[in-house]
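Memo subject: From amino acid sequence to discrete backbone structure tokens
Action wanted: Derive the backbone structure tokens from the amino acid sequence.
How to read it: Take the token row as a discrete description of the fold.
Attached in line: The record itself begins immediately under this heading.
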Amino acid sequence: MAEGNEKTSFFERLKKGLSKTRQSLIRNVDQIIFGERVIDADLFEELEETLIAADLGPTFTYELIDEIKERVKRKELDNPEALKKVLKDQMIGILRPDGKPDEEIPPDRLHVIMMVGVNGTGKTTTIGKLAHGFAGRGRRVMLVAADTFRAAAIEQLEVWGRRSGAPVVKQKMGADPSAVVFDALKSAASQEVNILIVDTAGRLHTKVNLMEELKKMKRIMERESPGAPHQILLVLDATTGQNAINQARMFRDEVGVTGIVLTKLDGTAKGGIVIRIARELGIPIRYIGVGEDLEDLRPFDGEQFVNALF
């Protein structure tokens, strides 16, 4: 029963968090199709502008409009209200979940999660919330301070380590991040840690250096623990819209990304970016954040997301 209540309360928080996106997208769609509106070229043009402005992206928008035109031709759409159902169904189709991210983590051996993303996306906070969630489900978690370029990142990770009861492996500021990762893998093996979460730097103005550093860390992980990193999660700030897409494409192409954590969905009218990332980049959304609280980062459920949006 408690779990049901928890799900309901998160759905309410998600609905509230998506209110800005709902106002910019669903309300505009409602206005376009309001009343006895004829489904014609003008309607399609207005719909296209609205969907692209809400950051759903051109690929999804054109596919949706083609689908609607096809259905009109087959006389399956006789009123504009039915357009909304097509929009909703298409979104759910793209976001249908492919398994919960933590269901894939075996309880009896080390699972390494490498967190990447530019500074300012909420990466370290996300790591803390993930650690808290895993620890709450009885997993043995260890954190790795491999962002050695910012003293604040190391300190912040230590605070989260204390909050979640997870030990933190660190070295002094300016140390080689790969050396920190090497130490952490040795410690994790000796302490029978189940989940190792690695914080990494995100200084984009030295992009080449950053990517080479991340690749080196990956090589060390693979060498010391075959199969690692088992997940590379990219943390994106939903409020940055198109920028988030560019970042996702770059990290995917340079280091490989197995999933995305989308933060700050409660602060943006561009929640449609979720659809765009899934459709254009083919990277699953693994977690979403809709607030500051520990419980406001959750495994992503595509159907729940779309229902909350509508």
Notes: The chain has a mean pLDDT of 89. The longest strand covers residues 231-237. The radius of gyration is 21 Å. Residues 207-224 form the longest helix (18 residues).
